[in-house]
Structures are given as C-alpha cells and as structure tokens.
Write a structure and sequence with these properties.
The chain has 13 helices and eight strands. Helix content is 41%, strand content 12%. One of its GO terms (molecular function) is oxidoreductase activity. This is Aldo/keto reductase. It comes from Mesorhizobium plurifarium.
Amino acid sequence: MTTDNLKTPAVALGTWAWGDSGKTGDGYFGSHLTQAGLEEVADKAHAAGFILWDTAAVYGMGRSETVLGEALKRFARSDYQLSTKFTPQAAGTGNDAVADMLEQSLARLGTDYIDLYWIHNPADVARWTPRLIPLLKSGKVKHVGVSNHNLSEIELANRILGEAGFRVEAVQNHYSLLYRSSADAGILDYCRNHGIPFFAYMVLEQGALSGKYSPENPLPEGSNRAETYNGMLPQLKALTDKLASIGQGQGAAAADVAIAWAIAKGTTPIIGVTRPDYIDGLVRAISMVLSGDDIAQLEALADAANVNTRGWWEQEMEG
C-alpha cells in the first residue's frame, strides 16, 4: 500500500497548450509559445510554490511532455510533482501497452518516476486498471488516478485496485461554472466521502471564461478552441461581466474569480499556464474569498447562458 498520501496543492499547473509548441505554433489552442517563454513560466511557478505539473502523452503527441521535461530540468526532481496519463485510445499493440506508454513518458519528461499517473479516458476499465498495479509496485508510479470516468467506472477501478491493496487516489474531470456534470452525477460527493482529491480541468473553458474574449475580440481564429467557443461568446457575456465585477472588488481578474469558484467547490483546478503573468492570477485566486451570494449568482448566470461545453472526447457523466 502506498504509505504517503498524495499531497494535493490548491492549484495544479496544466500544460495541454504546451503541446502547441511544434513548428507551426497553431495547434489546438493557437498558442505561440517558445521554450524560453515556458521556462520563464516554470521559474515563476517554482518561485511561487506551485509544484504539480499536469500533462499527458497525447498533448501534442508527446510535445507537451518533452517541452515540460526540458523546462523543469533546472530544478531538483524532489521540488516538483509530475502528473501524466495513459490514453487507451492511443495504446500501442505490445503485451503491456500501459507500461510501454509510461516508459515513453518517462523518457520525454527526463525522469524515472511519475508522482501521479492517470488512465486518461475510460475504454475498458476491467482491462486497463489492473495494469497500474505492477507500476505502483515497481515505484515508477507513486499514485494513480482516473480521468473522464463516470461514477460506476470510478467505483470499478477502485475495487480492482483495492484487491491489490491500492486505491484510486485522484479523479480528474472537466468541471467549470458552465459544466458541472461531475457534481450533478454524484462524483464530487463520492470523492468527498472517500477522501479522494478531485482535479477540475477546463475551469476557464479554454479561455472563454477568462474575461479576455468577447464577440468583438474572439479566440484565435483557426484553432480548435475558437471553433468550439466563439459562437457562444454572446451568451457568456453576462457571466464574464459578473466574474469581472466580483474580481474588481478584490483587485483581481475575471479568470481569478472562476478559479476561486472551483476551489470554493472543494476541487483542485488544473489551470493552463502559458505566460508568467498567469501565475500572478493563481496567487490571487487562492487567497480570494467568494461569498455564498457570489457563488449563487455566478451559477445562476452560468445556467442562464445555457451552453453545452462537453468536449468531443467526453462521455455524459449522468445516466
């Protein structure tokens, strides 16, 4: 049994957009990123005490892990935690596809262990979950979690790991003001009742809730996220205005308030960081206090926006 419990930070750092750092610079997010710029982000995060970095083998098909590994080289391995993922949909054909994908991730990240290893999307819980057990026993993986799994899949994974003396130590799902299916489906309650940290990704809906975009100033054209969100921006205006006005009262930005909301709901937000000033926003979000009234108003405006931001890779959580 793993003796040390997973230490959960207030906020984890997301690097999905770091996979855009190929030669074209116009990946999923339309980000224009440089290695030097990302190293500056890593330095600032490190100085501010943010230590958990979340990536996946499929972010930019390995590019995110490679760039992150390079950026973290300057720090002692004990000074940061790495979270990466096995994606069944991208599994190889070898005898042990999970161990194979892990080895590739370790090589790209330049490390010999992963602090938190996830099964990224459910494909066949009974088939893939047992493959985590030898990795935990070997010490190459310290803790394990499941991402994008529904409640019955989380319970099944927990049972399978439990038979070997381990357990699901973290759950990671899409959760934001606009997309609360994990709460509605009882997953947040299950995590709370079982002492399992819940990591929320897409808290800012890929920037649509950051307050930086509007119908007049849409997300970068030609990116996948622009295709998904630009058409919704008119419906989101009342909500982003409210986020901004709550933020103004506390010397903070709209994005900080959306992150503070996710923290207030008992989750650990994973926030994509591509610029050093994003770290300042995380520092503000952590210290912010939202009233019950603020939270209720934000949720009411989010409901009124009436948009569905479920990703194409996600299953319905309720049912």
